[in-house]
Specification:
Blueprint lengths: L3 E3 L6 H5 L7 H15 L8 H17 L2 H10 L1 H11 L15 H11 L13 H8 L3 E7 L1 H6 L1 E12 L13 E3 L8 E6 L2 E6 L8 E3 L11 E12 L8 E5 L2 E7 L6 E3 L2 E9 H6 L1 E7 L2 E7 L8 E4 L16 E8 L6 H13 L41 H10 L4 H7 L11 H21 L5 H37 L32 H23 L4 H10 L6 H16 L3 H24 L3 H13 L3 H41 L7 H7 L2 H9 L2 H9 L3 H14 L2 E2 L21 H8 L13 H6 L7 H7 L3 H8 L4 E2 L1
Subcellular location: Cytoplasm
Main location: cytoplasm
InterPro entries: Apopto_cytoskel_mod, Cdc37_C, Cdc37_Hsp90-bd, Cdc37_Hsp90-bd_sf, DnaJ, DnaJ_C, DnaJ_domain, DnaJ_domain_CS
């Protein structure tokens, strides 16, 4: 059941101020001042929602701060009080001016208590059924909704009681409808009452103002005039519904939706916010992160230098609008940065080295070991910092970079030194330690030069200490450089596939051949590239599809070994297109399988490109390493597959929409009439009686419909009918449609048509062929020439040549 949504969230005054019904006057005042400060228009410039909230809070405080108004509010309830206020609001009216009452409630307060809420403005109602409907209060029920269900929309079943007019008494409440004169008002329907100096006339409380009462109560409805029916109805709660929204089932039943808070998301209008924690490395270097969105997990791009509490925006990923489901808000992710509490020795060394080069820092950093001299300082910007650490360190990347490290033994530095016969080489002999030592030497030499100008004893003592430290550092540096040279010479003599030598020229002499393409090779012409792709698709389509349907890595490796010609960029392009085709066919299982095969080929091609190798030389290593890869790498691999599937779904949806638009345009073009108008659009634009006559092929009704129109309107619609092909002049008497059924418009003969259209008393009379008909016709044109000029001759053509009118 489609329901009306009431977004005017009128709340109980006590709930609006956040106080209990038994709250004291001081508590109410305190709550009001707190909320007024928060929602005051001056504190929220341009915020219409805050201004509306402030008005509601002020209205609630005005009622609850006044003892008499509060008492009436408690007696009548929220809805009844609001209805009463809207009917008599304004505070003054006929009672304004000096000595007037503050508002209408003060005037009618005693009447309300004396006559059960009845006053002189009460309308007369004819029957108990009508009186019951007029006095019936809407019933609002509550329903709890999960947060994500409020995003997607939800359907609930609700039991309701509906009232219908009693069939036994037709709503009168009297058996067989027999009524008698009211014994209290004697049929007048009103009674007079005195209130001090005022004389008030009000509706009779016994007959309800009708002047009559039931002689005998109806046995079916017990005099109520209504019968009740219990039923369960399905209520559709729209997507994007807010907490507190009332969804109306009918005029007397509504559902107030209470959306449960989410532990992940917070809603702010159509926007939502959530929080995500990133590592220190991600904050500094940038990266990406999978976070939970309203429609599933999404990839969040992290910029280098991300700061705590930054808000990253996911456009169009927020709540849908109830009024316009195509419109959506945004999803903002608030970034928290996790600072590691426990560091390994290596991590601490790197952080301390970062601290050495850190600029614009306030305060000091706790170092694991103090500098060799208190006078050591960071080199100035104009000094060259040879061997600056960190330049040769490869940044932590995604799945591919980690996989490449695994393939190339990049982390196996100790093993390389054992091959070189340098078992004693440790972290202190690595390139970054050598660079740090070189910086320290430069700092100490600079400080020594500054102190040599001072002849004091303290300066000379410092110079002595610096000179000893310099000698020690230079000896260590010389030993380090010698061992590095020996290691490089060993690697040149014993080449192997690792990250330090795979991309250098000397690796061409290793057991793995060099990449066949030159780095300076000019890119292919785009047209030639397209020709190559088409040729690949034509020659290898069946093989590529067979590869796309393979379900495990071992089978894929074997198939590529048997068909190495597939290992090229065109295979990845083909698989992406094939994946989109599968998504259009809504074969989800096949889509995921093809996406996995596509990502596999993409990683093999990227690995070959990075190592400057032919893909046929890399794919076996890829499969071998993947089989023993870390679970973390495989998780990232699966995320890549999911990300590709999301992109494929978007492209498939776009393709379907394009196809639908094209089909609709082709259908419209096929049915366009001789004058270029769409017959369906023209038929829908006709007056209702003419449209019905066309649908029923009723000639008399059609002519009668045109007779009701003014000459200009009749002329306008008739021309559109002809131009669209709905009415074809000169149609055959027995023209048939594609199904063989006669499409004659009632088979009206020419003479009948002319008699109707030329009748002197008809408003649709068309100028005849003689002056008498022109004078008598009071219709579309005063003379045949004017009609011909105005309608490009179509009317005369119809009159002169058509014997039957064919409805297409």
């Amino acid at each position: 059941m489609t329901c009306r949504v009431d977004t005017d969230l009128s709340e109980d005054f006590y709930k609006l101020l956040g106080v209990d019904r038994g709250a004291s006057k001081a508590d109410i005042k305190k709550a009001y001042f707190k909320l007024a400060k928060k929602y005051h228009p001056d504190a929220n410039p341009g915020d219409d929602a805050a201004a509306k909230r402030f008005a509601e809070i002020s209205n609630a405080y005005e009622v609850l701060s006044d003892e008499e108004k509060r008492m009436r509010y408690d007696q009548m309830g929220h809805d009844s009080y609001n209805n009463f206020s809207s009917g008599y609001g304004g505070g003054g009216g006929g009672f304004g001016g000096a000595g007037g009452f503050r508002d209408a409630h003060d005037v009618f307060d005693e009447l309300f208590r004396s006559f059960g809420g009845m006053n002189q403005q009460r309308q007369r109602v004819a029957t108990p059924w009508e009186r019951r409907q007029a006095e019936r209060e809407p019933m609002i029920m509550g329903v709890r909704l999960d947060f994500l269900d409020s995003v997607r929309g939800h359907t609930v079943q609700v039991p309701i009681t509906t009232e219908t007019r009693c069939n036994g008494c037709n709503g009168t409440g009297a058996e067989n409808g027999e009524m008698q004169t009211c014994s209290r008002c004697h049929g007048s329907g009103t009674i007079d009452a005195s209130l001090g100096f005022m004389q008030v006339r009000t509706a009779c409380d016994k007959c309800g103002g009708t002047g009559t009462t039931a002689r005998h109560q109806c046995g079916t409805c017990n005099g109520l005039g209504a019968s009740k029916t219990q039923s369960n109805v399905e209520v559709e709660i729209p997507a994007g519904v807010e907490d507190g929204t009332v969804v109306w089932i009918d005029d007397f039943h509504g559902l107030r939706v209470r959306v449960q808070p989410s532990r992940v998301f917070e809603r702010h209008g159509l926007d939502v916010t959530s929080r995500a924690t990133i590592s220190l490395a991600q904050a500094v270097l940038g990266g990406s992160l999978r976070v939970q969105g309203l429609d599933g997990s999404v990839t969040l791009d992290i910029r280098p230098g991300q700061q705590p509490q930054d808000r990253l925006r996911l456009h169009g990923k927020g709540m849908p609008s109830v009024a316009n489901p195509r419109r959506r808000g945004d999803h903002y992710v608030i970034v928290d940065i996790e600072v590691p509490r426990n560091l390994s020795t290596r991590q601490r060394q790197l952080m301390e080295e970062f601290a050495i080069h850190e600029r614009d820092r306030q305060g000091e950093v706790n170092m694991s070991s103090p500098p060799p001299s208190a006078t050591e300082a960071e080199p100035s910007e104009d000094e060259p910092a040879h061997g600056e650490p960190g330049k040769d360190d490869e940044k932590e990347g995604g799945f591919f970079s980690k996989l490449k490290k695994t393939f190339c033994h990049e982390d196996d530095a100790d093993e390389k030194r054992r091959h070189a016969g340098k078992e004693g080489t440790s972290d202190g002999r690595k390139a970054d330690d050598g660079a740090r030592r070189q910086i320290m030497i430069q700092q100490l030499e600079k400080k020594k030069a500054q102190l040599e100008a001072d002849e004091g004893d303290a300066a000379q003592a410092q110079i002595k200490g610096i000179t000893e430290r310099l000698s020690e550092l230079k000896a260590q540096q010389s030993e380090f450089e010698q061992k590095e040279a020996e290691l490089e010479r060993y690697q040149r003599e014993h080449p192997r596939w690792d990250v330090d030598n795979i991309s250098k020229d000397r690796s061409n002499r290793t057991i793995i051949n060099a990449y066949s393409k030159s780095a300076d090779e000019a890119p292919k012409d785009p047209e030639a590239e397209v020709d190559d792709m088409q040729a690949f698709f034509k020659n290898n389509r069946s093989k590529a599809i067979a590869y796309a349907h393979l379900k495990d890595m071992k089978a894929s490796q074997k198939y590529l070994a048997e068909n190495p010609e597939l290992l090229q960029d065109h295979l990845a392009s083909f698989l992406v297109i094939y994946c989109v085709d599968c998504q259009v066919d809504e074969d989800d299982e096949l889509v995921r399988n093809v996406a996995r095969q596509t990502v596999t080929i993409q990683y093999i091609l990227e690995l070959a490109k990075s190592l400057k190798r032919d893909p046929r030389e890399c794919f076996n290593a890829f499969f071998a390493r993947f089989a023993t890869a870390n679970p973390e790498y495989k998780d990232v691999f699966e995320d890549e597959i999911s990300s590709l599937i999301e992109r494929v779904k978007d492209r498939a949806q776009a393709r379907l929409e394009e196809a639908k638009a094209k089909m609709a345009e082709e259908e419209r073009a096929a049915r366009v009439g001789p004058g270029g108008l769409d017959p369906i659009e023209v038929l829908e634009s006709l007056p209702a009686d003419i449209r019905e006559a066309f649908e029923k092929q009723d000639t008399p009704a059609l002519q009668a419909g045109f007779a009701k129109l003014s000459p200009e309107d009749a002329q306008y619609h008739f021309k559109r009918v002809v131009d669209s092909g709905l009415w074809v002049p000169g149609g055959n008497t027995e023209s048939e449609d594609a199904d063989g059924e006669s499409t004659l418009l009632g088979g009206a003969p020419k003479e009948t048509f002319k008699a109707v259209t030329a009748a002197p008393t008809s408003a649709t009379g068309v100028a005849g062929k003689n002056d008498q008909e022109k004078a008598d016709a009071n219709g579309w044109a005063q003379d045949a020439d004017a009609a011909s000029d105005q309608a490009d001759g179509w009317l005369n053509y119809v009159m002169g040549s058509s014997s039957y009118c064919t409805l297409l």
